Amino acid sequence: MADLILVTGSPGVGKSVVSEALSTTLGCSFIESTLFLKSAGALRADPSGRDSEVVDEHLALESIRRFVLNEEGCFVVSSLHPTLWLNDLQERVIFVVLLRCHPRILLGRLESRGWSRAKVLENVIAESFNVIAEELLNYEDLVLEVDTSGKDVGELVEEILAKLDIWDTGIRIDWLSLDEGLVELVTRLVHELDLYKEGFGV
Fold first, then answer.
1. CA nearest to 12, candidates 156, 133, 145, 111
2. What pLDDT score was predicted for residue 186?
3. Of 59, 75, 154, 186, which residue is least crowded by CB atoms under 10 Å?
4. How distant, in Å, are the alpha carbons of 52, 77, 140 from that of 39?
5. Gap between the Cα atoms of 202 and 199, Å rounded
6. Gap between the Cα atoms of 59 and 38, Å rounded
7. CA-closest candidate to residue 78, choices 124, 32, 144
8. If we measure between CA atoms, which residue out of 166, 162, 168 comes closest to residue 142?
9. Which residues pair with 5 in a beta bridge?
10. Alpha-carbon torsion (34, 1, 58, 6), positive or negative
């Protein structure tokens, strides 16, 4: 059976580049979860018309379970949906890397990607409110949390390995409590997103 290392976090935090570098360092294979799920037919366009995709959870879980049972070796998986890989297969997960990024920095990163304004806002708001972090609370003893703000990939891999060496697990970052001014920014972003949705009937 396969052994898994999950790398997760909001879009723009650096999942893919960190996953690839970590897989090279550890001698593991790299899997981009979105491509894996697409090839399994477990992703489809959001029927609401939003600029996103919806996971067929049943098909995704079947495909992941089959992969883990039939493959050998270690795999670093970059995933926006970590619990898909943890559900029913937690014993195959060695550890989880939760990448975080300060919402102010993340806003600039996502804007530079040319995404729709609504998609940018949704993801910055999600990071501000610790959405993926909260999804992992039941698995906190497996989670190495790393702030990617202002760091290059080499520094991040070194930090992950240092945390792994002393098993420094836990989820501690709460952006809204760390940056008092962020509450005002996020409030404006939420209002802007609400106006966008009203205007486009989303």
1. 111
2. 94
3. 154
4. 17, 15, 30
5. 8
6. 11
7. 32
8. 168
9. 76, 95
10. negative
Q: Which of 146, 158, 159 is nearest to 13 (CA)?
A: 146
Q: Quickly state the pLDDT bin for 202 (edges 50, 70, 90).
A: very low
Give the single-character DSSP code of 136: T
The DSSP output letter for 196 is H
Helix orientation angle between 153-166 and 15-26, rounded to the nearest 10 degrees: 60
What pLDDT was estimated at residue 180? 85
Tokens of 186: 């996020």
Given the structure tokens 């952006």, which residue do they identify? Answer: 175
Residue 170 DSSP label:
B
For 173, the 3-state DSSP assignment is coil
Percent of the chain with pLDDT over 70: 94
**CB of 100 within 8 A of CB of 32?**
no
Contact predicate 51/70, CB 8 Å: no
**What is the separation, in whole angstroms, between the first and last Cα of the chain?**
43
